[in-house]
Amino acid sequence: MGRIGKRELKIPSGVNVSVAGGQVTVKGPKGQLVQSYVPKIEIAVKGDLVTTGCRSTNPKALALQGLYNSIILNMIKGVIEGYEKKLEMVGVGYRAAKEGRNMQIQIGYSHPVFVEAPAGIEFMIEGTNKISVKGIDKQLVGEVAAKIRRIRKVEPYKGKGIRYAGEKVRKKAGKAAKAASGA
């Protein structure tokens, strides 16, 4: 059995964790998150510690114990600090603009692409080609950033498209480079 499910999570001051009706609720200075869990897992709050246990010896249930332990830890971090994913747009004429809570991206198509911000997500635009996706729910921030990235995947020949900040793109040699090398 893994050790992640057995770890005790310390609840910082200013954060309230409650368990009721098959749901864990975490409230903090940045907001509130709710996560439901399966009945095979037991989650207990004792003082300023949260523990997870498992009522089954099934390996899949034991894996869920570690999963929910990590989810609760991410919820606690989210309501205190929040999460952020940064994206970069690389290409001539690629730019983003904020429209209220939503965002408009011009990414080389014949029309602009509109991206709606779901509840709990905020877009920040630095310059014209850097996008930050912020929120308190780690899973939702990652999902929205991945959807934005899928609008224009990075192509391997010139490296144009939307990528995560700091992401390395392996470029392929084009036809001209292959012909010159005699391949």
UniProtKB/TrEMBL annotation:
The GO molecular function terms of this record are:
rRNA binding; structural constituent of ribosome
- GO BP of this protein: cytoplasmic translation
Any one GO CC term of this protein is:
cytosolic large ribosomal subunit
Keyword presence, Cell cycle: no
Q: Does the keyword Ribonucleoprotein apply?
A: yes
Print the keywords alphabetically: Ribonucleoprotein, Ribosomal protein, RNA-binding, rRNA-binding
Name all Large ribosomal subunit protein uL6 alpha-beta domain ranges: 11-82, 90-164
Q: Name one Pfam family in it.
A: Ribosomal_L6
Q: Which family does it belong to?
A: Belongs to the universal ribosomal protein uL6 family.
Q: What assembly does the database describe for this protein?
A: Part of the 50S ribosomal subunit.
PANTHER family found in the cross-reference section? 60S/50S RIBOSOMAL PROTEIN L6/L9, LARGE RIBOSOMAL SUBUNIT PROTEIN UL6M
Function description: This protein binds to the 23S rRNA, and is important in its secondary structure. It is located near the subunit interface in the base of the L7/L12 stalk, and near the tRNA binding site of the peptidyltransferase center.
Q: What is the protein's name according to its record?
A: Large ribosomal subunit protein uL6
Q: Which organism is it from?
A: Candidatus Saganbacteria bacterium CG08_land_8_20_14_0_20_45_16
What gene codes for this chain? rplF
